[in-house]
Write a structure and sequence with these properties.
By secondary structure, the protein is of the alpha/beta class. The protein has 12 helices and 12 strands.
């Protein structure tokens, strides 16, 4: 029988003490009010995972400002005092159920397909993301060609992340995760074909990671040592699942070492399969590379539904915490089930339909 003990050992990430190594991965839910306020149903949704034994919850992407950051209609924000107060109710419920919760701060950039503040989008360069918008999240047709951010606008984006992190701190969140993955703005800067800049933010990996590193450093300094800060990183994107960093392991070293030097507490890697090698000419996973070069704690996400696979990443030292997405939706008490050697249920496809709106979680499968 597999020994799952490594999953249940406590861990400290930054100043956050976790009871176990199992986290809820951030998942787009588009279930906020039209003006971006978290709702009672969202509070119920997150509290259910807390009651199910997840040591850490990471929220869906939250937009940080009232300019170009919103990516989806009915996406929650933390750009106003009202939005902050709405999140405080969610946070209080999670804490009451015994879990910790991080706010994921997300600027959609060129991948925005629904923004109630502006009708345009921005990116590192005037290059549209590949593919088409997600009908699943109320999008239609190709992505727009964004306007290339000026240096002055980039400064405003940085300040937006800082203010959002401070509001998250005010709302009682235990930490913030800066979204640098999945094709959103900071990942667009990391991506060679989307970033055609000729200034200090384009060209080499050192330049392309610079903007994300500046934001990590800004947020770290603003919230102080009492709040945990990290960043999510991936190679693949919403609209380009096959993307790999052209520079391979060498590029990964630059990216993770640079981010690790900013004073953050963790890196959260997400791949289609977290346990597979990150590059064809290497045996190491992206999580292992992050652990090796960043020098900070690593959260790993990507097809870790099977407890045997999940515990292997913690046991072999390639990750400190594993994050579950679909597996958590299928089993909102996954940690409790695994810990008590009970069987896991199959994912109900209706959880995602039709617009990934949060269901009435309290009405079924009570804790």
């Amino acid at each position: 029988m597999t020994d799952y003990t490594p999953l249940w050992s406590p861990i400290r990430i930054g100043t956050t003490e976790l009871d176990n190594r199992v986290a809820l991965a951030p998942m787009t839910r588009i279930s906020a009010t039209e003006d971006g306020h978290a709702t009672d149903r969202m509070a119920s949704y997150y509290q259910r995972f807390a009651r199910g034994g997840f040591g850490l919850l990471i929220t869906e992407g939250i937009y940080p400002d009232t300019a170009h950051s919103q990516g989806y209609l009915h996406q929650p924000g933390i750009a106003t005092q009202g939005q902050t107060q709405a999140w405080a109710r969610v946070v209080d419920g999670v804490h009451a159920a015994g879990s910790k919760i991080f706010a994921q701060l997300m600027h959609a950039g060129a991948q925005s397909q629904g923004n109630r503040f502006v009708s345009s989008s921005v990116g590192p360069s005037a290059v549209a993301p590949k593919g088409e918008q997600l009908g699943f999240y109320r999008g239609e047709g190709p992505y727009r060609v964004p306007a290339a951010l000026t240096l002055a606008q980039m400064k405003e984006v940085r300040e937006g992340f800082v203010q959002a992190a401070l509001r998250a701190q005010e709302a009682g969140f235990d930490g913030v995760e800066i979204h640098g993955a999945n094709g959103y703005l900071l990942d667009q800067f990391l991506t060679d074909y989307l970033n055609q800049r000729e200034d200090q933010y384009g060209g080499s990996p050192e330049n392309r990671v610079r903007f994300a590193a500046e934001i990590c450093r800004d947020v770290r300094e603003a919230v102080g040592p009492a709040m945990t800060v990290g960043i999510r990183i991936s190679q693949s994107k919403v609209s380009d699942h096959a993307h790999k960093w052209r520079g391979g392991v060498e590029e990964a070293e630059v990216i993770f070492a640079t981010l690790g030097d900013t004073g953050i507490d963790f890196v959260h890697t997400t791949e289609y399969r977290a346990t597979e090698p990150a590059f064809a000419d290497s045996t190491e996973t992206l999580a292992a590379l992050a652990r090796k070069y960043s020098g900070v704690a690593v959260i790993a996400n990507g097809q870790l539904d099977d407890p045997v696979t999940a515990v292997s990443m913690v046991a072999d030292g390639s990750a400190d915490v594993i994050a579950l997405g679909k597996a958590a939706l299928a089993n909102r008490n996954w940690p409790q089930l695994v810990r008590s050697n009970q069987g896991l249920g199959e994912l109900d496809p209706s959880v995602f339909a039709p617009l990934a709106d949060v269901k009435d979680w309290e009405l079924a499968d009570p804790a």
